[in-house]
Specification:
By secondary structure, the chain is α+β, with helices and mostly antiparallel strands. The protein has three domains: about 60 residues; about 90 residues, Pdz3 Domain (Roll), CATH 2.30.42.10; about 170 residues, 2-enoyl-CoA Hydratase, Chain A, domain 1 (Alpha-Beta Complex), CATH 3.90.226.10. It contains twelve helices and 17 strands. The strands form three sheets. Strands 2, 3, 4, 5, 6 and 7 form a six-stranded antiparallel β-sheet that branches. The protein has a six-stranded mixed β-sheet with strand order 8-9-10-13-14-17, sandwiched between helices. Helix 9 packs parallel to helix 10 and helix 10 runs parallel beside helix 11.
Length: about 425
């Protein structure tokens, strides 16, 4: 009996000892993180593969010197990733991201965004609100002033995004950080405080991803007739092969209209050329150039690489009447590519606000020393006229393209006006 009791006690002691050994092993793994190697890997990857490192206005050497001590002081891979994300956001490029993400990270911009603000005269002024979003349904409108997000003043919110004081930043960096902050944390309810001219008003908004995720259960393309005109809207599906067939069906239904409105204002997540090119093909009768590009190589900067051209082939049915394109703050990546592509192949006009500026064609690089991945633009993209894609501005420019201060759709109204004169 004593023997049995002894074995039981010994068994308990052995289990405790094993737990202690495992704890030591876990600690040793954590301590094996080398911040110096992680920083060198990130820095070298950016310098060798990122085609937008020389972006106008951003002093990358100054930025690296500022963040290097912070990154080298990190004690864990998670702390390194959090600080590296702040560094990357200073390039104000929505295509430049580092993951994996957790619930303490910001929603990816512009997919996780429904309010667009500009920083003017030390105020954050709502310029546009995404149609159908939580912010739109709550009644947030253009010209309101945003004063707080999630309880933080906007200046503190900007600092949280970029890791720098407002006074140290370019206007473009301030705008970018403010708009990232308004998207809130991933899958988390947001609180926004605005001044609507009659005092402050507090809004509690659903997580910014909710409205965009709901689109997955619906059609990739919506369409209808407006009198004798056709209207087609993309529902953030430029990465979904179903979009090609749905657009073709829409075009068949609208083929007898006198003109067409193509709405790319709800494409914040971008997509790929295998979806974009067949759609563009319905508007050409022969092989036609729709964009140009240069690829950054590890041993050759993008600027020294020969310029390449992307083409679109004809696709039936052919739409032979005038068409206009709507674009705006939530036209992102392939949405931007299709906008400049439609312009290149003969759109009557592009109408709307400046687009989201997701820079270049992207790839993902695994960073082994920090167990992260880096998404970056390795191809610099151009309009067929040789100008940078990110510099493209709609021919008929509107500051507010989705929802104006009265809750109306200004870009669609302008398109109807333009086509009425055709």
């Amino acid at each position: 009996m004593k023997n049995k009791k002894f074995r039981m006690v010994f068994g308990g002691f052995f289990a405790l000892s094993l737990c202690a050994c495992q704890h030591v092993t876990i600690q040793n793994v954590a301590q094996s993180f080398n911040a110096n190697l992680a920083w060198l890997e990130l820095k070298n990857t950016l310098e060798q593969q990122y085609a937008y490192l020389d972006r106008s206005g951003v002093d990358k050497d100054k930025l690296f010197n500022l963040f290097a001590p912070k990154l080298l002081a990190t004690q864990s891979k998670q702390a390194f990733a959090d600080t590296a994300q702040q560094l990357l956001r200073n390039f104000y490029d929505p295509h430049l991201n580092l993951g994996p993400y957790n619930e303490q990270d910001f929603s990816v911009y512009p997919t996780g965004s429904d309010i667009y603000v500009n920083y003017q005269n030390q105020q954050f002024i709502v310029v546009d609100v995404k149609a159908g979003s939580a912010a739109d349904l709550a009644g947030i409108r253009a010209n309101m002033l945003v004063t707080k997000v999630n309880g933080l003043s906007m200046s503190l919110a900007v600092k949280q995004v970029l890791g720098r004081e407002l006074s140290q930043l370019l206007p473009e960096q301030v705008n970018y950080a403010a708009n990232v902050s308004l998207g809130g944390l991933r899958n988390t309810v947001r609180t926004i405080t605005v001044n609507n001219g009659m005092g402050e008003k507090y809004y509690e908004l659903a997580a910014s991803y909710e409205a965009i995720n709901a689109l997955r259960d619906g059609p990739m393309v919506s369409y209808r007739k407006i009198d004798n005109l056709g209207y087609v809207r993309f529902n953030n599906g430029l990465g979904n092969a179903k979009t090609v067939d749905e657009f073709k069906q829409a075009l068949l239904e609208l083929i007898d209209t006198e003109a067409l409105i193509i709405d790319l204002r709800n494409t914040p997540s971008g997509g790929n050329t295998s979806v974009a090119e067949p759609i563009l093909g319905h508007f050409v009768t022969h092989k036609t150039a729709y964009q140009r590009y240069q690829t950054q190589l590890s041993d050759l900067p993008y600027i020294d690489v020969e310029m390449s051209t992307a083409y679109v082939e004809p696709n039936l049915p052919f739409y032979d009447k005038p068409f206009v394109v709507l674009a705006g703050h939530w036209s992102g990546s392939m949405g931007e590519g299709m906008t400049i592509g439609f312009d290149a192949i003969g759109a009557k006009a592009v109408i709307g606000a400046p687009m989201a500026d997701l820079l270049g064609g992207i790839k993902t690089v695994q960073l082994k020393h920090s167990d992260t991945w880096l998404e970056l633009g390795f191809e610099r993209l151009y309009h067929v006229n040789g100008s940078f894609r990110e510099d493209f501005v709609p021919h008929i420019r509107l500051d507010t393209a989705d929802r104006d201060s009265a809750g109306n759709d200004p870009a669609l109204a302008k398109a109807l006006s333009v086509l009425d004169k055709v």
